[in-house]
Design brief:
Helix content is about 50%, strand content about 10%. The chain contains 15 helices and 9 strands. It is globular, with a radius of gyration of 20 Å. The mean pLDDT is about 95. The protein has about 375 residues and is of the alpha/beta class. A 6-stranded parallel β-sheet has the order 1-9-6-4-2-3, with helices on both faces.
Amino acid sequence: MIGDFSFTIPQNCVFGVGALKKLPELLNSSGVKNAMLISDRVLEKIGLVERVQKLIHEAGISCCEFLDVPANPTVDVVESCAAKYKDSEAGAMIALGGGSAMDTAKAAGVLAKYGGNITDYEGTGKIPGYIDPLIAVPTTAGTGSEVTVATVITDTARNYKFSILGSEISPKYSVLDPELLMTAPASIAASCGIDALVHAMESYINTASNPFSQIMSEKAMELIGGNIKKFVARRDNVDAACAMMLGSTFAGIAFANNRLGNIHALSHPVSGYFHVAHGVANAILMPVVFEFNALADNGRYSKIYEYVTNKAAGTDFTPDMLCEALRKLNRDLGIPKNLAEVGVTEDKIPQMAEDAMKSGNISVNPRLTSLNDVVNIYQRALIG
């Protein structure tokens, strides 16, 4: 029986090779005369920031920049961005980059408009109202932040990554231009691609899964599973780039409507304590968590296996076959084989486990999870 559920897609999404050229049109339609571009120094170095600046200026719109977004945005970064936004008297934000740029923009939008400390808004239902118009321009196929109602920020005082959730911070527009993905190095394409795949898989199997999220998840897995290796091998493969961009966005829509699971719950503390890139942490934890969840498989592991391997599961399929396929995918893409390889040490596992248990994703994981279970998963992932 299908239970009650609801879904929403609050963004206006524009997709296509060259879609970036529509950015001025979107700004003008919102009546924006002065905007802030939020990005990072890497995209500045390769000329992408200048390309966007030129588009904005040619449309007669003033633009200032905040380009100090790090891989894992912190409370301090959000405060700096919000202060610059207020001083500029801008009326809209353009987030150019991966999830870090979009998360920074969302959080800074809250702080600039409503004041206080950004930690005051931790959790759900704390945002007083809508932020100024935000246009998300993703340059990676990974986070899906361009279509989600969440931002994740690192509080260095606690070594803790916290979330702020609410439709009030959703981007007004999302510009999905696969051409922008082609600037990514292979390692970024791999880790971000796995992040998007994990979004689709966890959304597909968690206890809050519903017909709408399942449709989004399945299409995302089909697109990503069939193209991630091709895309990492050649980022100039236009068809693969298109598939990865759409797959990432569909996965974002899926989990925005039902949450994720243990992989994300456990990966955030890894990033918080050891500054490991989010996609890398997810990838390393992925096969270990799928092993743990195998006991709760309700037949969906075989479907995921088919999307990941592009092979029929067959009548002899067992959940272990999916776990091994995920390990092989990591190996093929050059993902580190365990947490120790990325600097994680065993002494921090107890505190990381405590922090992981605070995540709302634990409650919808397919298999009920205790603190001791989390410790054991970390220990297994530590050695691979």
